Amino acid sequence: xxxxxxxxxxxxxxxxxxxAQYLGKVVLVVNTASKCGLAPQFEGLQDLYTxxxxxxxxxxxxxxxxxxGQEHDTADEIGEFCQANYGVSFPMFAKIDxxxxxxxxxxKWLKSEKKDPLGKAIKWNFTKFLVGRxxxxxxxxxxxxxxxxxxxxxxxxxxx
Length: 160
Fold this sequence. Notes:
Blueprint: E1 8-10, E2 16-18, E3 26-32, H1 41-52, E4 57-63, H2 75-86, H3 105-113, E5 128-131, E6 137-141, H4 151-159
Parallel strand pairs: 3-4
Antiparallel strand pairs: 1-2, 3-5, 5-6
């Protein structure tokens, strides 16, 4: 069975990260975009991370420019924006594609595990996937689903 531990991704600093390091944690994977109207969700994501990090939650942000080009061009711009505007301290990764033939393998897997009611494709920025301590996908949330509204599911996953 494939799990989160089977994937690697480049950090925002360009270093290869083995996602197996997050086994045993509850992980919220989010495709982000700094210039999106939903960007204020960075604050809610950071709030979740701050509140539950000590209990074993990690938020992983994956910048993506596939939706109306709403992401900065460079890793430095992305990192600066997230830190300066929302105090983001959770791990951020290099800009990726989440759909299409160049979609990152992690997102191909996430989409195959939890389809949207309208299909597999990611519809917009800030689609969220909750992954359990065992590395299996628990749930998928629409872009407009506010981070605070995921807290009960996170608490349940942290308790298991």
